[in-house]
Amino acid sequence: MRFTRAAAVVAAAVVAVPLVAGPAAATGKSKPLGTRSLAAVLTADKSGFDRNGRDYDILTAAVLAVLKAKPGSPVGVLTDGTTALTAFLPSDTAFEKLVADIQHSKRLPSEKAAFTAVAGLGIDTVESVLLYHVVPGATITRTAALKSDGARLTTAAGSTVKVDVYGYCWKSVKLIDADRSDRDPRINKFDLNKGNRQIAHGIDGVLRPIDLP
Description:
The protein is an alpha+beta fold. Helix content is 31%, strand content 17%. It is built from eight helices and seven strands. A four-stranded mixed beta sheet has the order 2-1-7-6. A three-stranded antiparallel beta sheet has the order 3-4-5, with no helix packed on it. This is FAS1 domain-containing protein. InterPro entries: FAS1_dom_sf, FAS1_domain.
């Protein structure tokens, strides 16, 4: 995979987000952040489609499929660790639940079947969904996220998701997407690739950029 000019354009379109002013502000440290990319993190897992619903095999396959079909896709920003961004990573189970929902099935498909169904939506649709999970220009750590109740994050797709911090003694975060009829995804893993300009948080559902029936 390679970083493209199109990806640079998206990454440069930084929208004012009240969470952080930049990589240094996100961590509260003056030490420069590392440049390991999220693509490197995702592709480090060589297990392929397995039975571990908590990892990101389907997401990784979707990213690779988009970049293979569209080398100039803005999704390529995930391969450039020098560009700050925050991504929300749906687990394999999250994609399986999405496919079951779309197919009106009570049974979850296998990871391979779920990826096939997602790919069947069309490469442009897959690309749009992936970009809806990326917030360019901001390295948002768990600490920053927990202080950002009500913030609206502008994604690389151009639309927004809203941060909802809830709970009394133990704070949790969910993301409110464009689909008003689904359960909003919760963050279940924080600070993946922490210490780098590109950071990610695992989520238990796929963010939906449109209101699905």
